[in-house]
Specification:
The protein is of the alpha+beta class. The chain has 25 helices and 19 strands. Strands 9, 10, 11, 12, 13, 14, 15, 18 and 19 form a nine-stranded mixed β-sheet that branches.
Length: about 725
């Protein structure tokens, strides 16, 4: 690659202006959800009985009868065709953190083969399809010669139209019934937490019939000019820069965070919002993030299953809209060294069908006892399953982010803030005959009869905590920007469900032994507060002291990604997922096989790209520059032999320095290749992943160090790869 391409890309990037984005002529409420088969659309195209049946399926999990499915399919087809749809697809979520789809047209024979062609879409096609399951990650559940898989419609996720295709959100299962996706176990986890939480809520309000899990995600991302992106093979193939010295200016002035949005970016954001609204995605917030060219968007929170679908859809829309504006979106958790990476904070909460937020402080003693009950059980769930929760968010990409000075550490702890912590401490040290009252001055006195009213705006913030209480929800901050939120939400909701089941069993046992309901709840909560105390940490999660302290507390401090995944198949996790009926032990082992294989392939690809860049870009360029220096030194020595040390000494030293770096690069690349060859011969996926983590990955930083040193030495006009100052500051 010639440096000419780099400078041409830089020049063209500087010339680009913001596109003119015209707002829709209609107001947002008039076109919001235009491309979604929501209740408004259903009311137009379906009968009241059919809509009632769908609502029953969503609320109560009842199976739709074939006749009803046919009615839904017919109405959905008419709606979609009026929007220009000619094809349909079962839009599902394999174990790749993305989505998958196979498009089929509506046309079919009217009768037998060779008859007239009609446009048709039956209930059978709506409810079920049979894609080839062999080429998707499945952990060995299905082999290539056993390729059949099924997709089945999820009625709780509304269908939508993208361009000419009707997209039907579905689950993805094997021929023998094992789950091959992320949506199916999420639905099971949500069902489990609904049942468990509803049973506990009825201690406080018998009118509660259903509990919903809510999710509000915050999507962080980078925008890079498309021309510059194209001249970086590492960005193109891995999503991150494997090489590159820090810019003299990066984020140290903190002048990008919440700053004025650059005009090209603002146009992109505006365009994206218009598109998102058409799909019923309620984007609310947009702003600059901390790192240069890093940004964030966030919607209004919604039901978890729907929010997950909307996040996956918005990521797809982001990529399309970015291309219109000559940008590329980087979702990688750590695309640039030395500046903040990107996360996807998952704001999680639970709420009842009566409109009560279970993590929202109430106005009465009973409401606040309920609030404390759910907060304490959340702490217990996180404490007992901290290793599982870490495994749910860990990937090869996220490993680069977690533990750095801008992200939650690779140790799961919970932050409550001073006020909630004080309440729990008082509860732990009180008796059931005492009362807790909070006056206007926020002074605490003891007693169970009056759990204190906790003010929403009195909650602290701790940006170093992976799991922080932020007023009326918990913020799971460790989720990576490229991830499917389902993975974290499966683990968290299943853990909460299992914990609430255990809580109710303990409370019921005390009531059966003669305790009053409130006393039984109090005694169990008091015990839980004491047990879960090690998970509570209000200090600096980035500090080295915390790593030592966390180890003393018995928290999971593992940093190796392949080892972290083993938490899925621990006795604790197997029992958890069995109790909640979310995943079987066979499915858990299969998913770990997928995770290990994916990790290996990610590192394998990066290693290949790194080797290619070094051997075909860096070494030739540095050698060419070294040759120029050698020529210069030779001429100086020839013309000024007596003054050579003075006149040629600097270039002579540079020649030697370049040689040392080149030797180190070549030596380490060769060693990395050999280690990769050894690892590739390992059959067992776990052992292969460990080999790539322990033997191959360590070479990355060593090689990068020497390349980045050369970047500072070699003539800028010869360097072929766009530098950080160009990638991060051209907008």
């Amino acid at each position: 690659m010639s440096s000419v391409l780099r400078f041409k890309a830089v020049e063209e990037a500087f010339k680009k202006k913001a596109l003119c984005v015209e707002a829709p002529k209609q107001r947002v409420p008039e076109y919001y959800g235009k491309y979604v088969f929501n209740r408004k659309a259903m009311a137009k195209y379906l009968s009241k009985d059919t809509m009632k049946a769908i609502q029953n399926a969503v609320d109560n999990g009842q199976t739709l009868e074939r006749g009803i499915a046919d009615h839904v399919a017919a109405g959905m087809r008419r709606w979609a065709m009026e929007l220009g749809a000619t094809h349909y697809t079962h839009w599902f979520q394999p174990l790749t953190d993305g989505t998958a789809e196979k498009h089929d047209s509506f046309i079919d024979y009217d009768g037998g083969p060779g008859e007239n062609v009609i446009e048709d879409f039956s209930g059978k096609l709506l409810a079920q399809a049979e894609p080839d399951a062999s080429s998707f990650p499945n952990g060995g559940i299905r082999s290539t010669f056993e390729a059949r898989g099924y997709t089945a419609w999820d009625p709780s996720s509304p269908a939508f139209v993208i361009e000419d295709t009707l997209c039907i959100p579905t689950i993805f299962i094997s021929y023998t019934g094992e789950l091959l996706d992320l949506k199916a176990p999420l639905l099971k986890a949500l069902n489990s937490v609904d049942k468990a939480a509803t049973a506990v809520c009825q201690y406080f309000d018998p009118n509660v019939k259903k509990v919903y899990s809510y999710l509000g995600w915050e999507q962080e991302y980078f925008l890079i000019d498309e021309g510059l992106y194209a001249t970086r093979p590492d960005l193109l193939l891995t999503g991150r820069t494997l090489l590159g010295h820090e810019s003299a200016k990066n984020q140290q002035l903190e002048d990008h965070y919440f700053g004025a949005v650059p005009s090209r970016v603002a146009a992109f954001m505006k365009d994206l919002e218009f598109e998102a609204y058409k799909y019923g995605i309620p984007l609310k917030t947009r702003h600059n993030e901390v790192a240069p060219n890093q940004f964030e968007l966030a919607p209004i929170f919604g039901e978890t299953n729907l929010s997950v679908d909307q996040n996956l859809l918005v990521m797809s829309i982001m990529r399309k809209v970015a291309r219109r504006h000559s940008f590329r979106v980087l979702m990688h958790e750590k695309p640039f060294a030395g500046v903040n990476g990107s996360g996807k904070h998952n704001n999680w909460s639970l709420g009842t069908n009566t409109g009560v937020g279970l993590f929202t402080p109430g106005k009465t003693p009973q409401e606040n006892l309920q609030f404390i009950t759910f907060v304490v059980n959340s702490l217990m769930a996180v404490y007992k399953n901290n290793a599982l929760l870490k495994a749910s968010i860990m990937t090869a990409q996220n490993a680069h982010r977690l533990g750095a000075n801008e992200a939650p550490p690779a140790i799961v702890s919970a932050f409550l803030g001073t006020q909630i912590s004080a309440v729990l401490d008082k509860l732990e040290n009180s008796t059931s005959d005492e009362a807790i009252v909070m006056d206007d001055k926020k002074r605490l006195s003891l007693g169970i009869a009056h759990i204190p009213e906790v003010l929403l705006d009195n909650t602290d913030r701790n940006r170093t905590s992976p799991f922080a209480f932020t007023g009326n929800r918990f913020e799971f901050r460790a989720v990576g920007s490229s991830a499917n939120c389902s993975s974290a939400m499966i683990a968290l909701n299943a853990a909460m469900a299992a914990q609430l089941i255990e809580f109710k069993t303990s409370v019921d046992a005390k009531i059966a032994a003669g305790a009053t309901k409130d006393k039984a709840i109090f005694e169990v909560l008091k015990e839980y507060i004491k047990i879960s105390n090690p998970i509570r940490f209000d200090g600096n999660g980035y500090s080295e002291e915390w790593k030592i302290e966390a180890h003393k507390r018995g928290l999971d401090c593992e940093t190796s990604v392949p080892e972290i995944y083993k938490a899925y198949t621990s006795k604790q996790s197997v029992e958890l997922f069995a109790k909640t009926e979310v995943l079987t032990e066979k499915e858990l082992h299969a998913r770990n096989e997928v995770k290990w294989e994916t990790y290996t392939k990610k590192i394998q690809i990066e290693a290949r790209v790194l080797g290619d860049l070094c051997l075909n870009h860096i070494i030739p360029v540095a050698t060419r520059y070294q040759s120029l220096l050698l020529d210069n030194v030779s001429k100086i020595k020839k013309i000024y032999p007596d003054k050579f040390e003075t006149l040629g000494g600097m270039n002579s030293a540079l020649i030697e320095e370049i040689a040392l770096h080149l030797t180190a690069i070549k030596t380490n690349v060769d060693a990395m290749v050999e280690e990769r060859k050894v690892a590739n011969k390992i059959d067992h996926e776990y052992e292969k992943a460990v080999a790539y983590h322990d033997k191959v990955l360590p070479y990355f930083d060593v090689i990068r160090y020497h390349v980045d040193k050369l970047e500072l030495i070699v003539d800028d006009e010869m360097w072929t790869l766009p530098k950080y100052r160009e990638l991060l500051f051209i907008r």
